[in-house]
């Protein structure tokens, strides 16, 4: 690990960060005004170009990774064929020096009703920037870009290489995807070329996130036999079969899940247990017809000691048990998405540098926390096999996906300082020419 920064270098970085916060906020506002909403994945090329043009202006080598029509169909099946473009910037350092890769996703969830400000306006009010994606997570992209600028404009030259990426489709997940998953598959992020990775999601500015819970998104369908509503005994009611299944899960499985605690603290704490929720149900065609089909979509969240195989088996056991004892019970089980829980060690140079930087800027020891949902860390750790990957960025997790989403400018500034000091320590610096 490089030598600890000199006190005067830290102070220069901090003062420079203070001087460029207005530029960082302006950059963020520009991103917020591009409605890169997913689904379906609107305005991705425009957002990638906006980020890429800023990186080019700051001296990065910039590459755009655009998907072909065939790749779109395979990796973004719910994307309505809209174009998908990722942006990748590189600021080379000395040969054989460490490489730090900062990553953020530029897609945002749909807006919803009830906003008190323009959701794509980037309004600044009472020290906060408002807009869809301000916290989750265009604020993170602004922070990662200007953290590096704080080092450079302080007159310090980084010895290692910095990479910046803005990717698509994090919000639509997928076992593979057109964003971070694609970068890993193409080898742009790989153990032989990438030393450290920081994904700038909002888990609160005084936390370092070391992993995420697991997830299965799936659909269960029950089958019956249609009949007239006046003679239900002549049919088999698929909806009633589904209701019986859901009732058994609620009585027998859900209480067990609530007893399973995550080994590491989750933000927010209300997500600290395993869970299962049934969130979409469809069945029947008419009030006087017994339905021959019913489907339910479920969301199963796994704590860090659970496995995907065991989570599936628990559902299969109930389904198979009902097939054995309930006359006419037939079902089909499908999955749309599955991700195992992820957790990395705190005993690494990456984590310890960020810990030291947070202590220096905020005056307190950070929490080592777990994300309630899955994120792009899974591709880095599970697929690329890179353990030195953390989630750290500005913003409160409680702001994600809400009406009037916003980011405190003070948090943006603090995260810029923290990421800058940690990066300078990890890559090493010397006085510029």
Automatic annotation (TrEMBL):
<dbReference type="InterPro" id="IPR036264">
    <property type="entry name" value="Bact_exopeptidase_dim_dom"/>
</dbReference>
<dbReference type="InterPro" id="IPR011650">
    <property type="entry name" value="Peptidase_M20_dimer"/>
</dbReference>
<protein>
    <submittedName>
        <fullName>Succinyl-diaminopimelate desuccinylase</fullName>
    </submittedName>
</protein>
<keyword id="KW-0862">Zinc</keyword>
<keyword id="KW-0170">Cobalt</keyword>
<keyword id="KW-0479">Metal-binding</keyword>
<keyword id="KW-0378">Hydrolase</keyword>
<dbReference type="GO" id="GO:0046872">
    <property type="term" value="F:metal ion binding"/>
</dbReference>
<dbReference type="Pfam" id="PF07687">
    <property type="entry name" value="M20_dimer"/>
</dbReference>
<dbReference type="InterPro" id="IPR050072">
    <property type="entry name" value="Peptidase_M20A"/>
</dbReference>
<dbReference type="GO" id="GO:0016787">
    <property type="term" value="F:hydrolase activity"/>
</dbReference>
<dbReference type="Pfam" id="PF01546">
    <property type="entry name" value="Peptidase_M20"/>
</dbReference>
<comment type="similarity">
    <text>Belongs to the peptidase M20A family.</text>
</comment>
<dbReference type="InterPro" id="IPR002933">
    <property type="entry name" value="Peptidase_M20"/>
</dbReference>
<dbReference type="InterPro" id="IPR010182">
    <property type="entry name" value="ArgE/DapE"/>
</dbReference>
<feature type="domain" description="Peptidase M20 dimerisation">
    <location>
        <begin position="211"/>
        <end position="321"/>
    </location>
</feature>
């Amino acid at each position: 690990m490089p030598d600890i920064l000199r006190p005067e270098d830290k102070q220069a970085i901090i003062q420079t960060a203070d001087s460029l916060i207005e530029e960082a906020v302006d950059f963020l506002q520009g991103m917020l005004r591009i409605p890169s909403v997913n689904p379906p994945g609107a305005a991705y090329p425009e957002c990638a170009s906006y980020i890429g043009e800023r990186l080019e202006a700051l001296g990065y080598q910039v590459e755009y990774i655009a998907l072909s029509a065939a790749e779109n169909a395979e990796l973004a099946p719910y994307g309505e064929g809209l174009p998908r473009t990722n942006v990748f910037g590189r600021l080379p350092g000395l040969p054989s020096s460490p490489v730090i890769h900062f990553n953020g996703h530029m897609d945002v969830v749909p807006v919803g009703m009830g906003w008190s400000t323009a959701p794509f306006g980037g309004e600044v009010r009472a020290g906060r920037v408002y807009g869809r994606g301000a916290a989750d997570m265009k604020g993170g992209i602004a922070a990662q870009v200007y953290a590096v600028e704080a080092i450079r404009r302080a007159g310090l030259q980084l010895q290692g290489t910095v990479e910046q990426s803005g990717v698509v489709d994090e919000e639509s997940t997928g076992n593979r995807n057109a964003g971070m998953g694609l970068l890993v598959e193409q080898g742009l992020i790989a153990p032989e070329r990438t030393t450290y990775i920081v994904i700038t999601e909002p888990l609160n500015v005084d936390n370092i996130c070391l992993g995420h819970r697991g997830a299965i998104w799936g659909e269960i369908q029950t089958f019956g036999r249609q009949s007239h509503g006046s003679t239900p005994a002549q049919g088999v009611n698929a909806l009633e079969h589904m209701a019986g299944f859901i009732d058994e899960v609620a009585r027998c499985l859900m209480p067990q899940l609530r007893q399973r605690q995550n080994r590491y603290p989750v933000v927010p704490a209300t997500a600290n247990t395993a869970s299962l929720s049934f969130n979409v149900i469809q069945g029947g065609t008419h009030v006087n017809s017994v339905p021959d089909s019913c489907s339910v979509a479920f969301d199963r969240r796994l704590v860090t000691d659970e496995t995907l195989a065991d989570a599936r088996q628990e559902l299969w056991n109930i389904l198979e048990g009902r097939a054995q004892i309930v006359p006419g019970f037939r079902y089909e089980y499908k999955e749309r998405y599955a991700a195992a829980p992820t957790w990395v060690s705190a005993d690494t140079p990456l984590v310890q540098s960020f810990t030291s930087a947070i202590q220096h800027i905020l005056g307190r020891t950070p929490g080592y926390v777990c994300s309630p949902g899955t994120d792009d860390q899974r591709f880095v750790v599970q697929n690329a096999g890179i353990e030195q990957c953390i989630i750290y960025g500005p913003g409160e997790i409680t702001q994600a996906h809400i009406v009037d989403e916003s980011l405190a400018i003070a948090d943006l500034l603090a995260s810029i300082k923290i990421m800058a000091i940690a990066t300078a320590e990890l890559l090493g610096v010397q006085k510029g020419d």
